[in-house]
Amino acid sequence: MIVDRDTTKLLIETMARRVIASAQELTELDRAIGDGDHGINMERGFEAVLAQVDQLAAQGLGNALIGVGTTLVLKVGGASGPLYGTLFMALGKAWPAEATREQVTEALARARRGVQRPDRRGCRNGGNRSGLRRAPRRRAPHRRRTNAGLRRWDR
Predict the structure, then answer these.
(1) Is 150 helix (H, G, I), strand (E, B) or coil?
(2) How far apart are CA 102 and CA 80, in angstroms?
(3) Is residue 8 exposed (0-12), middle (13-18) or buried (19+ Cβ within 10 Å)?
(4) Is there a domain that residue 89 lies in?
(5) Which CATH number is 110's domain given?
(6) What is the mean pLDDT of residues 28-47?
(7) Residue 154 included in any domain
(8) Which of 48, 87, 98, 153 has the fewest CB atoms within 10 Å, measured from its CB?
(9) Any residues with CB less than 8 A from the CB of 40 and at least 6 apart, and which?
(10) Are 65 and 95 in contact (CB under 8 A)?
């Protein structure tokens, strides 16, 4: 299964337009806990993505996702640019050039796990607004302590 240029373009456009359409809602949510600029920043970043969608789509999905991530890092302010940019760059690096159905399924499963694991970025308990100001304390970068001893972090 190969994701062609038109499909890549459609995926990027759909994603960007959904974020842009949600900008007001994102801003309202951020206003309750922060400075109220999240929607504005995300809109700015995804408008920049839309401005280069043709160039991104021509590179294939993996490289296009890396390009989306790079654009978000450069254009989205605050903690959100690096956070969402890193997510897209990691997805792009994990995407195989000639993807089979199994590889696509595995890449999507990895993405799902990544979205469900924001604690890898910073504060795990939600006490820190951005989640990026303090790294979690661990015995080693890939292990953590449990009552049963040490276990792999990636489980």
Answers:
(1) strand
(2) 31
(3) buried
(4) yes
(5) 1.25.40.340
(6) 92
(7) no
(8) 98
(9) 23, 27
(10) yes
Yes or no: say if 135 and 122 are a contact pair by the CB < 8 Å rule: yes
* Residue 85 in domain: yes
**Overall number of domains in the chain:** 1
Q: How far apart are CA 124 and CA 27, in angstroms?
A: 23
Give residue 138's identity as a one-letter amino acid code: R
What is the rounded CA–CA span in Å between residue 26 and residue 23?
5
Task: Write the pLDDT tens digit of every residue in 38-49.
Answer: 999 999 999 999
Q: What is the pTM (predicted TM-score) of this model? A: 0.67
- Which residues form the domain of 82? 5-116
The CA angle 84-61-72, to the nearest 5 degrees, is: 25
| CB neighbour list of residue 117: distance below 8 Å, 6 or more residues apart | none
Give burial (CB, 10 Å; 0-12/13-18/19+) of 130.
Answer: middle
Is the residue at 47 inside a domain? Answer: yes
